[in-house]
Amino acid sequence: MDREKAAKRLAQLTEEINRHDWLYHVKDQPEISDAQYDQLMRELRELEEQYPELVAPDSPSLRVGGRVLEGFATVSHPTPMLSLDNAFDAESLLQFDKRLERLLGQRPTYVVELKIDGLAVALEYSDGIFSRGATRGDGTTGEDITENLRTIRSLPLRLSSSETIRVRGEAFMSRDAFEKLNAAREQQGQPLFANPRNAAAGSLRQLDTAVAASRQLDILVYALEDAGDHGMTCHWQALEWLEQLGFLVSPHRHRFDDMEKVIEHIESWQQKRLELPYATDGMVIKVDSLDLQQKAGYTSKSPRWAVAWKFPAEQKQSKVIDITLNVGRTGAITPTAELEPVQLAGTVVSRASLHNEDYIKEKDIRIGDLVIVQKAGDIIPEIVAAVKDVRTGDERIWQPPSQCPVCGSQTVRVEGEAVRRCPNPRCPAQVRERVIHFASRGAMDIEGLGPAVVDALFRAELIRDVADLYKLQVEDLIPLERIGEKSAANLVSAIADTKKQPLARLLFGLGIRFVGAKAARLLAEEFGSLNTLLQASHEQLVAVPEIGDTIASSVVRELASPEMQDLINRLEEAGVNTTQPKKQTGGALEGKTFVLTGTLDTFTRDEAKALIEEQGGKVTGSVSAKTDYVVAGENPGSKLDKARDLGVTVLDEQELVSLLRS
Asked: How far apart are CA 352 and CA 308, in angstroms?
């Protein structure tokens, strides 16, 4: 086939495949079989491989990813992506309605849409072709995630009309895709995502676009920027037009001219939302008229013409079948309620943490009790209360364990502490948790060594503690379930690479009680080597700024134990580094003050704090005029508002990473 015919055929294939993507992923009305679709894609790829210069910007082949990005550029939003004020009850909505009626001089018509629990994105189209997409970021500046967005099959790469527009939407992961992703990560020993929203956000921040393509994301569009410039007079009309252009727009949208009807509609969705294939955390109520929106205006952080209703946590009753115990790496024994399975917020709940014996006593939770269960934030199961008035007398009062449920040692509860502990450092449960902690991202960061792999290593009696990790060979791992030759080689290599980690990470990885990432770094920088630290007295330790009596006593006690001495000797014999590079002044963040707020996807707060401090920065707990940067994650809270009021620079997580790399 010559070049001219190839160009013509590629144009036909691109149009046909994009149409079938729209029918399947947006309209849910496929017209051809998967085999027929695959045949069209094969023909397209073969022609593009033969004529790479003919690959179009809306080619379906771009959806499979494959590019590895160096990082994400920043994008300034022409119109700020503001947050919405929240309402949690009918009275709040009625007050919102009255305020608007006074402000506008008339009662507005409202559009009500489901609030998808995903990642807000801004999309740009030039002459009908998708040209750029970005995260919300701090509302003014976001990350350019165009290449990852191209991999989402419900996002049109070419519109049905050659329009130049900017739209906003929500990228999300379905419940089914989320469960499959977490199941695969569990098999590979990787940490699980807490919820579909975090999974979607993490997927779109992948530097390898092939990873993003494998995550099966979707995108729903909910707003047209500058809609009046495109001949629209109301929000409803804009949504209808966006749907005609080929976007996935929520089919569950309604218009009401009365707030009482809005409230009735919202209440009808309290249970129905759990039947949807994706997670929703509320509903958004917007004034329909664009003129009235403009008249209502904005506050510094949100539009006055819109509000987000947050669904209250769904509560159900269940029965406490038993209270079981889990032993952590420090010996802390945590009681867990084993419940009769109950469907709650879209998943089956059969367990809920009871934290400690004081928590159980305060709520008077007994084995056999009927209890009220909810998911905090639609994520974490918790017992709200026991239903005491239906007790029969057969319920049993739970007694704190006098012996460790794993090794049988006598438990202890130190005065002033809420938890009961197993004092035996050789307890198998503690050893397992210590290995998992040692391999974690903030410690030695052993990629591929998650809980499932650790369990497999213990079952095969390949390890007894963390030092044994450095003796593992590829041939030891291949017989293990779900570990092939390549995975085995990668894991052995990842373990070997951690021998070069600085002392601060090793010290944190050893799991000394009260020694977090920051304390480990302070001690490593002060003493320089593990050998010097081993010889340090309590007085020398407390002389280190921010190291108090509690940390110092724990370090002296645990480093002096025969078990720790033996472990350190074996780690040194394996070639693990036990020194810390001298602290360098003049780091990239020298003299800069940071405040962290909200939940981060890539790091824990302690990890982010340690990385900032490694570069010379300082992390404080409150925002002031002296703060240089506020790093905002998910659900940032009032610190973000204060930062904006004071004009403090706000960074999202990726911008922090870029700053650290600089």
From this structure: 29
Give the count of domains, the chain.
5
Judgement on whether residues 11 and 148 belong to the same structural domain of the protein: no
Longest dimension (CA), the chain: 86
Residue 599 forms beta bridges with which residues? 634
User: Is the Cβ–Cβ distance between 524 and 504 less than 8 Å?
Assistant: yes
| Structure-block tokens of residue 483 | 């570990």
Q: Is residue 404 part of a domain?
A: no
Cβ pair 235, 111 in contact under 8 A: yes
CB within 8 Å of 399: residues ≥ 6 apart:
none
User: For the segment 424-441, what is each residue's pLDDT rounded down to a tens digit?
Assistant: 989 999 999 999 999 987
Six token digits for residue 165 = 């527009």
Domain that holds residue 45: 3-64
Amino acid at residue number 617: G
Q: Is residue 411 part of a domain?
A: no
In this structure, the answer to whether residues 296 and 362 fall within a common structural domain is: no
Tokens of 31: 């017209």
Rounded Cα gap, residues 323 and 413, in angstroms: 19
Q: What would the two tokens of residue 512 be?
A: 């000394």
Q: Which residue, among 615, 610, 609, 567, has the nearest Cα to 591 in the 3D structure?
A: 615
Same domain membership, residue 273 and residue 125: yes
Note whether 289 and 306 are within 8 A (CB): no
509 occurs within a structural domain: yes
What length does the chain have? Answer: 662
Tell me if 280 sits within 8 A of 117, measured CB to CB: yes
Tell me, what CATH number does 146's domain have?
A: 3.30.470.30
Cα 148 off chain centre by:
17
Place of tokens 């952080």: 301
**pLDDT, tens digit, 9 for 90 and up, residues 491-533:** 999 999 999 999 999 999 999 988 988 889 889 999 999 999 9
Q: Is the confidence at residue 346, as pLDDT, over 80?
A: no
Catalytic residue, chosen from 5, 8, 98, 115, is: 115
C-alpha to C-alpha distance for 390 and 374, rounded to whole angstroms: 19
Tell which of 15, 33, 64 closes a domain. 64
Residue 598, Ramachandran bin (φ over 0: left; ψ between -120 and 50: alpha; else beta): left
Name residue 317's beta-bridge partners: 372
| Sheet order of strands, 86-87 included | 86-87, 306-310, 280-287, 110-116, 253-256
Is there a catalytic annotation at residue 499? no
Strands 165-173 and 420-421: unpaired
Give the CA distances from residue 568 to residues 395, 440, 507, 559, 571, in Å, rounded to whole numbers and listed in that order.
Answer: 48, 19, 10, 9, 5
Confidence category of residue 379, pLDDT binned at 50, 70, 90: low
Alpha helices in 26-141 (DSSP H): 34-50, 90-104
Residues 472 and 560 in one domain: yes
Range name among 413-427, 528-542, 616-630, 631-645 with the lowest pLDDT average: 631-645
Question: 631: domain CATH number?
Answer: 3.40.50.10190
- Is there a domain that residue 421 lies in? no
Q: Would you list the DSSP string of 558-583?
A: HHHSHHHHHHHHHHHHTT---B-PPP
Cα–Cα dist 594/589, whole Å? 10
- Domain containing 50 — which CATH number? 1.10.287.610
Say if residue 293 is in the same domain as residue 271: yes
Q: CA-CA distance, 57 to 127, in Å (whole number)?
A: 12
* Opening angle at CA 537, ends 531 and 540, nearest 5: 100
Q: Which tokens in the block code for residue 601?
A: 């996807």
